[in-house]
Amino acid sequence: ELRPRVIRFGYGLAEDSNQGRAVRFFAEELLRLSAGQLKVRSFGGASLGADIQMQNALIGGAQEMMVGSTATLVGIVKVFGLYDLPFLFNDVHEADAVLDGPFGQKLLTLLPAHGLIGLTYWENGFRDLTNTRRPITRLEDLAGVKLRVMQNPLYIDVFDAFGAHAVPLPFSELFTALETGTVDGQENPLTTIQSDKFYEVQRYLSLTHHVYSPWILLASGPWWNGLSAEEQALIRQAAAAARDFERADTRRQAAQALAFLEAQGMQVNRLPVAEIERMRERAQPASERFAAEIGPQWLSELQAAISQARQH
Amino acid sequence: MRTKSLQRWCEGLMAFALAAMVLLVFGNVVLRYAFGTGLAAAEELSRLLFVWLVFLGALLALRENAHLGFDLLQARLSPAARRRCAVLAHLLMLYVLWLFAAGSWTQLRIGLDVRSPVLGYPLALLALAGLLCATGMAWLLLRRLWGLLRSADTTREPPA
Amino acid sequence: MSLALFLGVLLAAMALGMPVAFALLLAAVALMAQLDFFDAQLVAQNMIAGADSFPLMAVPFFLLAGELMNAGGLARRIVALAVACVGHIRGGLGFVTIAAAVVLASLSGSALADTAMLAALLVPMMRTHGYPPAPAAGLVAAGGIIAPVIPPSMPLIILGVSTHLSISQLFLAGLAPGLLMGLALVLCWRWLARDLPVAPLPRTPSRQRLRMLADAAWALALPVIILGGLRGGVFTPTEAAVIAAVYALAVSLLVYRELNPAQLYGVFVRAAKTTALVMFLCAAAQVSSYMITLAELPQQLGDNLAPLLASPRLLMTAIVLLLLAVGMVMDLTPTILILAPVLLPLAQRAGIDPVYFGVMFVLVGSIGLITPPVGTVLNVAAGVARVSLSDTVRGVAPFLLAYGVVLALLVAFPQLITTPARWLH
Ligand code: NA
Ligand code: NA
Fold first, then answer.
1. Looking at the 3D structure of chain C, how many domains does it have?
2. Assigned domain for C239 exists
3. At what angle do helices C20-34 and C261-295 cross, to 10 degrees?
4. Do residues A42 and C296 lie in contact, with contact meaning Cβ atoms separated by under 8 Å?
5. Which ranges carry the TRAP C4-dicarboxylate transport system permease DctM subunit domain (chain C) (predicted)?
6. Does B2 score more than 70 pLDDT?
7. What is d(CA B58, CA C19) in angstroms, rounded to the nearest whole number?
8. How many secondary structure helices (H) and strands (E) does chain C include?
9. Closest CA to C407 of C364, C369, C371, C377
10. Residue B20 binned pLDDT confidence (cut-offs 50, 70, 90)
């Protein structure tokens, strides 16, 4: 049976971002499917708090839904850290196959024990590298580049292994740091490089695709358990539709962002496959140390899933 | 006597936390310019210390009646009316503190399971600061409320 | 409806004698109940998230720097230099006060700290030289509120964090209006000093002046480091604050050698205690701003003010008048935390430059610190200078008029703020 409900849905990016558009799509879809009974009230721009704050509110039942980075889940379920490994997926099709396939879904089943329901994976995107020093065409070009990285020890190790100076900075301080030369470069998905206007302060864009960042659509466990089976099914249905919408929209947006960034005068370069392979090798020791902490059996399961995706 | 030494301990912890924050944040600037690198843990640890500093200090400030407020209206009231206002204000503050404490307790239990990204400390450490602050404040206010109610029986002035 | 409920509970709780932080929490709880989203976790979680902020860490660092400058002899040397330079002019100690206020403003981020330093150092000096106490204390109070406008500034940091504006840009935009305030005080004092029955101080020989300049140079280098560092992107505002603290510490301990370990401990404790007061308020305001977001209060307010949105100057006039009225009874930090996030979206809808809005907000709010009946800077000036509150209010009145002219100019010509900000940026 269906009861009228208001679902507080929080997300971090602006309302006019790909994240905001997909949340609106989800809200409309759910309203339509439930004949007006399940109303989503969405709050963008982190107005319900940062990802970690929303995630804890979900666990405690103080907020119903959110979409955010899988990296925030690592503090609860370590295995999600595997998605942070560099050069995991070669393209979006591999990512889709692994995330929507048995491996990605198995990770979602680990969440209910911690008070969270993982519904679907959305796409933040492949991360690429920008800087003011020189185009990164090969590994050696990274030598001495002061690079802002996320506050995750893995990335500090990886970029230090590349010969760059990895500087962990909060995202909120990044634009100023780039503008004023506190750091030379940064790495983020193309859509972020466009939306946060990094092109105004960065000259070279190198399409390294070194990490694939997924987002995850989460629901509060205590709240979810109080829903009827029909309500749960409708939410899952809307979540799946929103996932397909979001991925298509994000990929279109990324392509447009690339054209936009070139038009803004950024000098764009792609890297030869052999160079990517050298970077992957150079990152290997740090990746292995990191994966060993999470559990070797999980890593081999993930690798099996990826090679299966590659055969198709 | 015992609360006096407790206060000294609090002050010592706060001064230590502030000094450690200075060292961590300044150290990171030095690392960046001298070695082109940074300590990922510096921000996380300094923020944890900051939260503890704030909530310990807020508790201490309540004890010293230092929190910002207005007594403009109260000053014009008769002692009896002022006492009634003070009792009501204490009850409302206790209610808010009850919510703060109960919510901190829930967040503390959640936080036992959630770890910080760099150092991996349980986020319960943050909620614990809130819980201590709320319960400590409630204890102070309850004692004051008790004093207010007792003084209502007599003609004495309420305690400041 | 929600707006009336929120403000009603807030004001009633404050009238009842509850501290502002608790009144904010209670108003937030009332909104939470009305919205049917009642959950104690939201109170606790937002309190903690409100204190858990890297940008706001600039608050304790700048407070520490201020305490160190006072205890370590930096402030005293600046005053001595100002006496040597302008003490011999007619009404000279007044100009000394203004000069010291502007220089200290570029070192410290807090109006209270600056006022206390000025009142302790200058009012006794003015008294011994025959200046009447009322204008002396009034001038000190008026000079003290330049501190939050000229960078570094704690209120600008808090405003930047609560409205997501760039703190560096706010800092650079605050310089010009801060200097304008100093100029207004100079003109006003020149007019007042015409008929003061005091003889000017003897002129300081230039050789001695140079010696004092060299002595104060260590203190004077700090604003250059802070502004230059922010402008050149050497560091972020939080890092600028920690560098200011470490620099002041080094100068106090190694150059001036006026600080012993016991004093140093006291300095850290005092800075930490003030930090806790300010930040507990910020934490409580995080709870209320969460509820304000859920209740969509800015939209409600915007609908009520829609006719004013057509003209930026009209809206800005209304905002200035509102803030002056609020500033009569409320302190600056809670005013920022409660009103800035609500008013900024409106200002932007009317096409007002957000950085201009932020600086104006802090400027008007600072003036509220010297308007009766509730003016914390007035209280500090009167208390430290040992002048009665009513004399201080009487003494500050002409300077309030001068600041009124400054406000009118800044509303009529926003370029006075935006143009120099563009040069600096
Ligand atoms: Na200042
Ligand atoms: Na006032």
1. 1
2. yes
3. 20
4. no
5. 7-416
6. no
7. 12
8. 20, 0
9. C364
10. very high
Mutate to test the interface with A, among B47, B48, B110, B119 (most CBs of A within 10 A): B110
**CB–CB of C235/C229 below 8 Å?**
yes
Q: Is residue C207 part of a domain?
A: yes
| Any C CB within 8 A of B137 CB | no
| Residue ranges of chain A with per-residue pLDDT less than 50 | none
Task: Give the dihedral sign, CA C280/C284/C287/C290.
Answer: negative
Q: Are B86 and B148 in contact (CB under 8 A)?
A: yes
Identify which of A87, A83, A85, A82 has the alpha carbon closest to the alpha carbon of residue A277. A87
A37 close to A230: Cβ distance less than 8 angstroms:
no
CB of C138 within 8 A of CB of C398? yes
List the one residue out of C6, C18, C33 whose CA is nearest residue C341: C6
SS3 state at C2: helix
Q: Report chain A's terminal Cα–Cα distance, integer Å.
A: 41
Chain C residues close to B25, C-beta within 8 Å: 57, 61, 238-239, 242
Q: What is the DSSP string of C28-54?
A: HHHHHHHTT---HHHHHHHHHHHH--S
Per-residue pLDDT of A216-255, as tens digits, reads: 999 999 999 999 999 999 999 999 999 999 999 999 999 9
Pairing of strands A5-11, A65-69: parallel
What CA–CA distances, in Å, run from C157 to B28, B52, C76, C148? Answer: 21, 21, 26, 10
Question: What DSSP string describes B12-60?
Answer: HHHHHHHHHHHHHHHHHHHHHHHHS---HHHHHHHHHHHHHHHHHHHHH
CB pairs under 8 A between A and C: 50
Whether C20 is in a domain gets the answer no
Helices C20-34 and C2-15, axial angle in degrees (round to 10): 150
What protein residues have CB closer than 5 angstroms to ion ligand 1?
A: C 105, 109, 147, 150, 153
Cβ of C242 within 8 Å of Cβ of B86? The answer is no
Please give the pLDDT value at position B160.
Answer: 43
Residue C166: which of C407, C338, C357 has the closest Cα? C357
Provide the pLDDT for residue C142: 97
CA atoms within 13 A on the CB side of A13: 18
The answer to whether C55 touches C158, Cβ cutoff 8 Å, is no
Please tell me if residue A151 touches chain B, with a CB cutoff of 8 Å. Answer: yes
The amino acid at residue C144 is G
Distance, in Å, from the CA atom of A30 to the CA atom of A238, rounded to the nearest integer, reads 5
pLDDT tens digit string along A28-38?
999 999 999 99
- Residue A202, C-beta contacts closer than 8 angstroms, at least 6 positions apart: A130, A131, A132, A178, A185, A186, A193, A266
| Cα-based angle C394, C397, C402 (whole degrees, multiple of 5) | 160
Helix axes C261-295, C58-71, angle to 10 degrees: 150
Task: Report CA-CA distances (Å) from A166 to A170, A288, C218.
Answer: 13, 19, 34
| Domain membership of residue C129 as a residue range | 28-424
Q: Is C235 exposed, middle or buried (0-12, 13-18, 19+ CB in 10 A)?
A: buried
In degrees rounded to 5, what are phi and psi of residue A196?
-95, 10
For C150, half-sphere exposure in the C-beta direction (CA atoms, 13 angstrom radius) is 25
Q: Which amino acid is at C109?
A: G
Q: Chain B 62-81, CB below 8 Å of chain C: which residues?
A: 66-74
Report if pTM > 0.80. yes
Chains that touch B (3 or more CB pairs under 8 A): A, C
Nearest to A208 by CA among A268, A149, A120, A119: A268
